[in-house]
């Protein structure tokens, strides 16, 4: 699907994303269910379309702002 979008698509995810078997959890999921990539393929996750880390960083700043406004109230 991403390949057919001709570069106009962005992949966003709130993380963590199980996209390979390199983690303990990823390996356990593969062993139990035979699924190597659950939410996204490694190709998409590592591609220029993947903006999941920028999305996660933005979420962090939002959470910090909510905490500051809650504590300051």
UniProtKB/TrEMBL annotation:
Classification via Pfam families: OTCace (PF00185)
Domain Aspartate/ornithine carbamoyltransferase Asp/Orn-binding: 5-69
A GO MF term: ornithine carbamoyltransferase activity
Keywords annotated in UniProt: Transferase
Domain of life: Bacteria
N-terminal signal peptide: none
GO BP annotations, alphabetical order: citrulline biosynthetic process; L-arginine biosynthetic process via ornithine
Transmembrane segments: none
SUPFAM superfamilies: Aspartate/ornithine carbamoyltransferase (SSF53671)
Keyword Transferase in annotation: yes
InterPro entries cross-referenced by the UniProt entry: Asp/Orn_carbamoylTrfase, Asp/Orn_carbamoylTrfase_sf, Asp_carbamoyltransf_Asp/Orn-bd
Task of the protein: Reversibly catalyzes the transfer of the carbamoyl group from carbamoyl phosphate (CP) to the N(epsilon) atom of ornithine (ORN) to produce L-citrulline.
Entry's family note: Belongs to the aspartate/ornithine carbamoyltransferase superfamily.
Protein name: Aspartate/ornithine carbamoyltransferase Asp/Orn-binding domain-containing protein
Biological source species: Pelagibius litoralis
